[in-house]
Write a structure and sequence with these properties.
The complex is a heterodimer of chains A (392) and B (311). Chain A folds into two domains: 245 residues, Thiamin diphosphate (ThDP)-binding fold, Pyr/PP domains (Rossmann fold), CATH 3.40.50.970; 134 residues, Rossmann fold, CATH 3.40.50.920. In chain A, 41% of the residues lie in helices and 18% in strands. In chain A, strands 10-12-11-14-15-16 form a six-stranded mixed sheet, with helices on both faces. Chain A starts with a strand and ends in a 5-residue tail after the last strand. With 311 residues, chain B is an alpha/beta fold. Chain B contains twelve helices and ten strands. Classes of the chains: A alpha/beta (392), B alpha/beta (311). Strand 9 of chain A pairs parallel with strand 4 of chain B, so a sheet runs across the interface.
Chain lengths: 392, 311
């Protein structure tokens, strides 16, 4: 039986980790993640989990220790934000290159400089090419559900890759929402026993992890990493189906909201999607066919499915809460890559919003949807990329 | 029970780092590794920092390691191994593993004194049951002989070259062994492959303690030292007899010199066979040789004092 609770996103994720009961975790504080792992530390102190913590001296060491622990053979978790993820960057590639299914909630936060502790997606989007699977979450419920599903996805014997679960700093991590917890036993059974692959602790069959591979086989090694990523979509959908049976909550590669017959569409990830949906409803009530696509699986990116979902729209705005300075926003680049394959494509614009925790308001969505409506009618784009909600 | 440290008994043991690795002829590092592993009785898991030892012992489909071994990056052998050791403790606590396992990290001086210093300090402070072995050849040899904080005063490297104005490195070495002992770990020691019995005893002593241990072992590099390939052991012996590399241990905070040279040889004898010190013996650089000798003498006196006062 599901339990209805009022909790923060951090508390929800900490509880998901408690219910999974991993063997080892790395803990290091960084705002706004800190609160998640300190809650988990209380579970350890109160004997509610078997987890051995490593109270590291940096996020670089946290990911290094998680890699060592995972290679040793067992279930490993950690969590971070922003600068912490940036410091881990080198090791993120090694976790995925070594095919280690480490699970890590990432509480999205802006990157320095200037120093800013609030939510945006610069950290997660910057980790796009690290070889991690990325699941993005709109609210505490999704962050909780994604965290639980991440274990089944990353640990799948055909996959064995690390998974990052992204949730918005403060907006989700620190706001109390109504959501439902699964029972401890339900989570335990859903996730199942951890299955080892080539553990270092199999002393009778010594393994070497982390060889030097130069021009002879490096290229093949990296292709293998690409190929395993291609299998992830099906696993994500299979796990989502099982999860729906258990929870009644449906997940896909992305969420389509009133998109079926939409002329104009927003593509937006994480918490701001919720605000946008309200505004979409208002436009619908005015007779404007507006819809929304909210990516969930960002790596690997489901290009074909996204193109299929957006192919009948006339104009699309991709909303990015991160920027690739001098380029388009990272989400825009993915969506335009997806849509380029279509013979007839919608017109596209890109808005950068909410950096460093700047509020995203219904009025912003209204502005964008009105602009999209004009573009759909007259076929003209004023500017492809633009910052919105900027103080001039 | 630990194996008796006799050549007869040791010769019966299997080398856990096989022949066929690609370390340079005359390199001190594989000798150090073999001695450490020969003196280890238990099943052992090793972590390796990026460096010569790592790139030369596990390439593509080949590995020279007969034990479970992990390399992840340059600066984090201690952190990586702390993860392996923590998983072991977790599984042991949960009754999923029952064997007694030892954990050893190997890193060069660049990966230990410099870029891996924070990771090492963190792992020592956290109290993981591991022995960290630094094979100290006094520079970043893998990338081509660049200065590290273990490079000796006066040495010529590619980033502190002996030029017409600046005669090589002008700073003395960082005393990492003392710094590690200052973490209040049960055992820290310096060893040399020339004194193999002393080295192996120190390894066994390290394994006899639970918690973090640190061994700093000199490992000549003929490429960086510009010495003869067949001089490695002779040079590591001269490092000891000149007191450039004193053999000592700090056990539970108590310092003990484990080998005192019968006659303290001038440090110039250690330096002369090495091309990296050639300029020190050129006219005009006498002051540098004097300073190097003074540094060695001062460190040796401090060490003797520490032993005498029982600190």
């Amino acid at each position: 039986m599901a339990k209805v609770v009022a909790v923060t996103g951090n508390e929800a994720c900490a509880n998901a980790l408690r219910q999974v009961n991993p063997d080892v975790c790395g803990i290091y504080p960084i705002t706004p993640q800190t609160d998640m792992m300190q809650r988990f530390a209380s579970f350890i102190a109160d004997g509610k989990v078997d987890t051995e913590p490593i109270l590291v001296e940096s996020e670089h060491s946290s990911m290094s220790a998680c890699i060592g622990a995972s290679a040793a053979g067992g279930r490993v978790v950690t969590a971070t934000s922003s600068q912490g993820l940036a410091l881990m960057w080198e090791m993120l590639h090694i976790a995925s290159g070594d095919r280690l299914p480490i699970i890590m909630p990432l509480v999205n936060r802006a990157l320095s400089a200037p120093l800013n502790i609030h939510g945006d997606h610069s950290d997660g989007m910057g980790a796009r090419d690290t070889g991690w699977i990325q699941l993005w979450s709109e609210n505490a419920q999704e962050a909780y559900d994604n965290t639980i599903q991440a274990f089944r996805i990353g640990e799948h014997m055909d996959i064995r890759l690390p998974v990052m679960i992204c949730l918005d700093g403060f907006i989700i991590s620190h706001s109390i929402e109504r959501m439902e917890y699964l029972e401890d036993d339900e989570v335990k059974n859903f996730v199942g026993e951890f299955k080892n692959m080539y553990p270092l602790l199999d002393l009778d069959k010594p393994k070497s992890y982390g060889p030097l591979i130069l021009t002879d086989l490096y290229h093949e090694y990296k292709r293998a990493q690409h190929e395993v990523m291609l299998k992830v979509k099906d696993v994500v959908l299979g796990v989502a189906k099982d999860f729906e049976k258990l929870s009644g909550r449906k997940y896909g590669l992305f969420e389509s909201y009133r998109l079926e017959d939409a002329d104009i569409a927003l593509v937006i990830v994480n918490s701001a999607a919720g605000t946008s949906k309200d505004v979409i409803d208002e436009f619908r009530s005015k007779g404007i066919k507006a819809g929304l696509l909210k990516p969930r699986l960002f790596r690997p990116f489901p290009y074909d499915e996204v193109a299929e979902a957006l192919k009948n729209t006339k104009a699309v705005c991709v909303m990015d809460r991160a920027d690739s300075f001098g380029g388009y926003g990272p989400l825009f680049m993915e969506i335009s890559s997806a849509l380029y394959q279509l013979k007839e494509r919608p017109l596209m614009i890109n808005k950068i919003y909410g950096l460093g925790g700047r509020d995203y308001l219904p009025s912003h969505a209204e502005l964008v949807l009105n602009e999209l409506n004009e573009i759909a009618q007259n076929g003209k784009i004023r500017t492809i990329k633009e910052y919105i909600g900027v103080r001039e | 029970m630990a194996t008796a440290l006799t050549l007869k008994e040791l010769s019966k043991k299997e080398d856990l780092l096989t022949h066929g690795h690609r370390m340079c002829s005359g390199c001190g590092a594989p000798t150090v590794v073999k001695m450490v592993l020969l003196a280890t009785e238990f099943p052992v898991i090793a972590a390796n920092a990026t460096g010569c030892l790592e790139v030369s012992t596990c390439i593509s489909e080949y590995t020279a390691w007969k034990i479970p071994w992990i390399h992840t990056a340059f600066e984090n052998a201690a952190a990586t191994l702390s993860g392996v050791e923590t998983m072991y403790r977790s599984l042991k606590k949960q009754g999923k593993i029952d064997k007694e396992v030892k954990f050893i990290a190997f890193g060069g001086d660049g990966g230990t004194y410099d870029i891996g210093f924070q990771s090492l300090s963190g792992a020592m402070e956290r109290g993981h049951d591991m022995t960290y072995v630094c094979y100290d050849n006094g520079a970043y040899m893998n990338t081509g002989i660049q200065r590290s904080s273990a490079t000796p005063l006066g040495a010529d490297t590619t980033t502190c070259p002996a030029g017409s104005v600046i005669p090589g490195k002008l700073r003395a070495r960082k005393n990492l062994t003392k710094i590690m002992a200052a973490h209040n770990i049960p055992y820290a020691a310096q060893a040399s492959p020339s004194h193999w019995m002393d080295l192996m005893k120190k390894v066994q002593k390290a394994h006899s303690y639970e918690g973090p241990k640190f061994l700093n072992i000199i490992a000549p590099c003929n490429r960086g030292w510009r010495s003869k390939t067949n001089d490695s052991i002779a040079l590591s012996r001269l490092a000891v007899s000149t007191c450039y590399w004193p053999l000592y241990e700090i056990e539970n905070g108590v310092t003990k010199i484990t080998s005192t040279p019968k006659e303290k040889v001038p440090v110039a004898e250690f330096m002369k066979p090495q091309g990296r010190f050639k300029h020190v013996f050129e006219p005009g650089n006498e002051w540098l040789l004097t300073r190097i000798q003074e540094e060695v003498d001062a460190e040796w006196e401090k060490l003797k004092h520490a032993e005498k006062c029982g600190c």
